[in-house]
Amino acid sequence: MSSSSPIRRPASPHLLLRISVAVAVVTIVLKMLAWHLTGSVGLLSDAMESFVNLAAAVFALAMVAVAARPADDGHPYGHHKAEYFSSGFEGVLIIGAAGAIVWAAVLRLLDPRPLEQLGWGLALSVASSALNAALAWAMFRSARAWRSVALEADARHLMTDVWTSAGVVLGLLAVGATGWLWLDPVLAIGVGLNILREGGLLVWRAAQGLMDEALEPEVLATVEDVLRQQADGQVRFDHVVSRRAGQRRFLDLHMHLPADWPLGRADARRADVEAALVRAVPGLRLSIQMLPRGVEPVADAQAAPGAAEAEPGH
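The structure corresponding to this sequence follows.
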């Protein structure tokens, strides 16, 4: 394949989130039926999380559509941060579901009840978990390719659901083998606490994204390598500042050039640097300010915290 051939990406976030909505409806039906057959509060907690999956997938689909809108006069940098609202909203829903699960489990712990038709209930739970696991795998793959925060959040939530279901199944097998009815609500409490942890992590990630996090360390390392290669005895770079917003990556930097260079030569050199950075970091949005050597803007007389500098080797 030639270097000019387009790179095939996994399925788009829009498509996978639509599938996620459909899968959430199917798993709700399967898990509610499993709870109805067995009376297990552990399976009830698993089913309640699937309702959260449905609400989260619908909201994520809406936010991905907003994030895809082009920049306008009111949002000149685009709408990409909308995906962080999806991640935060999903985290809040998870935390709410965790509280409801723990409450229901405590009530059952105080009033244990026998379980019925465990075989059918467990089979339905395993089938729904298989659907969620397959979808989560596809979502993780697509989230990496599209750098979609909303899709990654939904995938993490689905994997939490998968591990939750696995724990519930193992616990119910233990109940069937031992006859210890208290294992069912204790297991549900453990499930709720695990879900609570996952919800807190999603809220934290969303908050960090809304506060303009720097680019990923590996991407920053790539940027620094490119600038070192481009720097020489006449050109140097400093005040390298980055941020990310959803799928977009932004980079600002100062490029210092000899004061006696003609404007055309300086601009050609800037174009070379820009091309090298974009090749190394696809989709990067750049702002390169050209300055004579030894000159700094008044507003930047003091370097921003964490600003990087790339100097030629001596």
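The radius of gyration is 26 Å.
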